[in-house]
Amino acid sequence: MWQTNEFADEHDGRPAAVLADGSEPKPLIYDIGSGSNFHSSTDWWDYDGTLGAPRATGVRAQCSCGWFGEKVYPIDWEKVDHSLPTPFNSDTEGPLGDWQVHVAVIEAQAVPVPQHVQELLDRIDVELEKLADEAPLAALRAAGALQRTATRIGADATHHLGQDEVSVERIAVGLGISPTAARSRLNRYER
After folding, report:
1. Angle at CA 95, nearest 5°, toward 89 and 97?
2. Widest distance between CA atoms in the chain
3. I want to staple 95 with a disulfide (CB 3.0 to 4.6 A). Which of 27, 61, 105, 112 is the partner?
4. Distance CA 11, CA 7 (A)
C-alpha cells in the first residue's frame, strides 16, 4: 500500500490490524468455491467481525522488512465509510506517518549517494523518460547501455567490498535493505 522507490519491495508499508488483546490476527482464509485454491487476506478492513473474522480494534504501521509501529490507532467502525473503495474508507494517516519515520531512519542509516551523482541520475531519468516518448527505440538502446554500465559498476563495487571483507550485515545497512536482499544483490553482480 505504501511504497518508496529507493527500497523497492524491502520497505513496503501498510496499516496492520490489531486485536483487542494487542495481537496481530492470523490471515483470513476464504473458500471461494470448489477446488484447491483459497483466497487469503491480512488487510485490516477484513477484520470487521463479519463472516467469522475477528474484529480489529486498531491498526498500526507494518513494514515488509518485519518492523511494526509501536502505536496502535483505534478503529471506529461506525466512522468507516463503506461507500468508498477499500482501503480509502478510513483514515490511516497515523500509521502512515509512523512508517514514514521508519523509512526515514533507514534512509539516514544508508550510505548517501553524493549529490552530484544523484543530480546526474535524476537528469538521466528525466532525459530517458522524454526520449521514451519521443524516440522509443533510441530510449531502449540507451536503457541497454545504462544497464550494461550499472552491471559493470555493480560488479566493480562488489569486488571491492569483497576485497575489503565488508560484512553482508554492514552492506545491508548501507543499502537500506535486509541481509538476504544484500546477498542477492551481491550475487547478481559477482563475476
Report:
1. 115
2. 60
3. 61
4. 6
What are the φ/ψ torsions at residue 13 (nearest 5 degrees)?
Answer: -110, 165
The residues facing 73 across adjacent strands are 59
| H/E run at residue 183 | helix 179-189
pTM of the predicted structure, to 2 decimals:
0.76
Burial 63-102 (b: 16+ CB within 10 A, else e): bbbebbbeebbebeeeeeeeeeeeeeebbbebbbebbeeb
Helix (H, G, I), strand (E, B) or coil at 59: strand
Q: Record the cell numbers describing residue 104, joined without a space.
A: 526515514
**Angstrom distances, CA of residue 2 to CA of 13, 42, 181:** 5, 15, 19
| Separation CA 2–CA 125 (nearest Å) | 22
Write out the three cell numbers for 173: 545497512
Quickly tell me which residue has 468455491 as its cell.
33
